[in-house]
Amino acid sequence: MTPVEFRRALHRRPELSFQEHETQQFIIDALHSEGIPYRVIAGTGVLAVIEGKRGNHERAVVLRADIDALPIEELNDVEYCSEHKGIMHACGHDMHAAILFGVLQSLNRERNFEGTLFGIFQPGEELNPGGATLVLKEEPFKGYDVAAVIGEHVDARLEVGEIGICPGRFMASNDELRFRVSGRGGHAARRKEIDDTVTAMADMVVRTTSLNSPDAVVSVGRMIAEGATNVIPSEVTAEGTMRTFDSEVRERIYTHIHGNARMVAEKYGVKVDVDINRGYPCVTNNVLLSYEAMIVAADEGIIVRELQPMTTAEDFGYYTERYPSLFYRLGVGGKAGGSHTATFCPDEGAIEVGVRMMQRIALHILNK
Ligand SMILES: [Zn+2]
Ligand SMILES: [Zn+2]
Fold this sequence. Notes:
The protein is of the alpha/beta class and 368 residues long. It has two domains: 3-170 and 282-366, Aminopeptidase (3-Layer(aba) Sandwich), CATH 3.40.630; 173-277, Alpha-Beta Plaits (2-Layer Sandwich), CATH 3.30.70.360. Helix content is 33%, strand content 27%. It is built from nine helices and 16 strands. It has helices at residues 3-12, 21-34, 93-110, 131-137, 197-209, 247-268, 287-299, 317-322, 349-366, and strands spanning 38-41, 45-51, 59-66, 116-122, 145-155, 162-165, 168-171, 173-182, 186-187, 216-224, 231-232, 235-244, 271-277, 283-285, 303-306, 325-331. An eight-stranded mixed beta sheet has the order 1-2-4-3-5-16-6-15, sandwiched between helices. It has a four-stranded antiparallel beta sheet with strand order 10-12-8-13, covered by helices on one side. Helix 3 (93-110) links the parallel strand 3 and strand 4. Helix 3 (93-110) crosses helix 9 (349-366) and helix 7 crosses helix 9 (349-366). The two termini are 31 Å apart. The mean pLDDT is 97. Bound molecules: zinc ion (2 copies). One zinc ion binds at residues 91, 126, 339-340.
C-alpha cells in the first residue's frame, strides 16, 4: 500500500476523537502487512516500534501523527469522499497518519539506523483532554532516552515543497476562564442591604484583562448580570479565554487571577468563584532541533519558511513539556482552503515531501 492509498482509505472512513476504532484496525492491518511491530496505545491509538540494526536501542526518536476527524459533512467532490455521514478529515490528520505510515514503511525495510524508532498514531487531538495525555499516562518511553519527539501539521499558507518552522515558542496554551460573583442581591436603592455583585464583577474583569502582555492574551467575552435598573442580582457570571506562549507565564497568571479573586471578595464582601478549565499547554520547539531540521530540509531541496508564533493550540504541547520536541508545518498549497471547513482539500503531492522530511530528520537524529 502506498502512503497516498493509505490516506485515501482513512479519508473515506473518518472517525471522531476517541472513537477511532475502524481507523485503529486499519492501521494495525497496514503495519502487520509490512511486518512492523506495534501495540495498541491510548485506547484507540497504535504505537509502532522499529529497532535499528545498529547501536544501543535505548536512544529513541518518536514520530507522532494524530488520527481523529471532525463533525463536519464533507462537500468535496473527490473519488475518496467521506462515507461517514457528518464526519470528515477536515484538519488533515489523514495526511499526517499517511506520512507516518510512509516513513515507517520505508525505514522498516533496511532498518539501517541506530537506536529505536517509535511511531505514534495518536487518537483524540481535537478534543480535551487530548489523546497525548492518554499516550503519556502509559509511560510508553520509560527506560528510553528520547532524543526527539517530532510531529507536523498540514498548512495551506505554505505551498507544496515548503515547510514552516518556528524555533522556540510556537503555539499557545489555551485555557477557559469562568468567574462567578455571589452575594446579597436586592433593591438597588437600599445599598446598605445589598452586596454590589455587579461592581465586584466589573472590578474582577478589569483586573483580569490588565494581565494582558506581549506574552499572554487574557480576554473576557461574556458577562451576565441579570438585574434591572433597580435590582442588583445575587449572582453575576463571566467567561473568557487565556492564551500564553510560556508555561511560567501561564502559572503566574493563574496565581494573579486567584489573588485578584480574593481581593475582590474582601473589598466587596462577596463570594468570588474562579474556575479555570486547563486546555493544552504551549507547543515549545527545541531550538537546536529546529535549526537541525532547517539544515536537513535545505539538503533535501525543501524550502523552509520561518514562522511566527500562532495563537492556536495543539495537544502536541504535552510532548514538548516532557521531551526535546519539534513540531513543524507542512505546505499543502493555497488551494487546500481553510482547515475545519467542509471543502478543505490538501494537495496529496505534500505526502511525498512530508515522508522525505520526517524520514530524513529522524535518521539525522538517530545516527548522530
Ligand atoms: Zn483541527
Ligand atoms: Zn489538526
